[in-house]
Amino acid sequence: xxxxxxxxxxxxxxxxxxxxxxxAESCISQDFFSLERERVFKKTWINVCRVDDIPEQxxxxxxxxxxxxxSVIIIRGSDNVIRSFYNVCSHRGNIITHNETGNCSIGLFxxxxxxxxxxLGNLAKVPDEENFFNLDKNTNGxxxxxxxxxxxxxxxxxxxxPEYSLLEYLGxxxxxxGDCPFDQMALLQTYKVEEKTxxxxxxxxxxxxxxxxxxxxxxxxxxxxxxxxxxxxLLDVILFNFHTMWSCEFVPNYKxxxxxxxxxxxxxxxTGLRIPQLVGEFDFYVIFPNTVIILFRGPMEDGYITYHxxxxxxxxxxxxxxxxxxPAASAGRRLGQEFFKCLIRDVQQEDSIAHEALYDGLASRAxxxxxxxxxxxxxxxxxxxxxxxxxxxxxxxxx
Length: 399
Description:
Blueprint: H1 9-13, E1 22-23, H2 30-41, E2 46-50, E3 59-65, E4 70-76, E5 82-86, E6 101-103, E7 108-109, E8 116-117, E9 123-125, E10 144-150, E11 153-157, H3 166-170, H4 172-177, E12 186-195, H5 199-206, H6 212-215, E13 236-239, E14 244-248, H7 258-266, E15 282-287, E16 291-296, E17 303-313, E18 316-325, H8 331-363, E19 369-370, H9 377-390
Antiparallel strand pairs: 1-19, 2-11, 3-4, 3-6, 4-5, 5-10, 7-8, 8-9, 10-11, 12-18, 13-14, 14-15, 15-16, 16-17, 17-18
């Protein structure tokens, strides 16, 4: 018979992560949140959008990073190069555009005094320019931000001299799923919800499947493979340099709902896109600090979901969810995608309620530690990586 410790397979695989409880103070401390702004979000590569969001020359996408007191505009220039800039006019510091998307092929105009910038970030025109004092347009373009691409994802770094290149930062994640066919899947839907919770509480709540049979019993509790005691078990866990992956499996031949059965009859066609990089049937990657990429296997085609947890304040977070599928080849396939989107949206509504309840409970300080089990090892590792950054030691985490 296996001993209790032998049954805990993930601590056996990664004993250096430890088993001690995780302090909860980081989720409810204003001082800690201030440190996160300076030592995490301003010192790491942050995914802000995908190249699909700016497909044409001159297209732009605006990402507000409230945690860094910054608004960022990402532009595909007329030379087809993607660049990022602070969304701030060189004249008096006005925010140039409040639109989330647009096209600036004919110019980007500040609404305050109509200063004009090109899609390369250059200052092109200043009304009443001759009345300024030695104004040099060549040195007063938009302020650039370090930008790099990986697998179609656009990342920025607010530090002018990042310690790591993007590929070095992503490390094993880039090797594991860098060849994933993300470009063959299109954005189906985006949801954003503002929650009264800390961003890490929301991320931690998603970074495990322990809760699925209980919190989501009626919606998807029957979908994921359970052990003989009806508890979830992960198929695999990988801890990268700063990031994590866990994978799990679905129940083989699980009983379809009446609607799912009907959809199968509407579209009994051939199997669509498959993602060869899948480890199991549901792979959950956390790219530190606030990005999640979920690869999943569908009955007829695969897809992926992204989560972003955007901190607004210590106890306010925007949870942004994006669903990606291959372009539907038939009406039945399109209906199947809509069904999946609506089902997962309902699951996430249950999650959102839990995120706020978790913050309220921890904010009372009735409990000062998070008691984590073996299947929650990726949460424990996330907090160790975070602790290293807060300690101003953003090298390889010494866990």
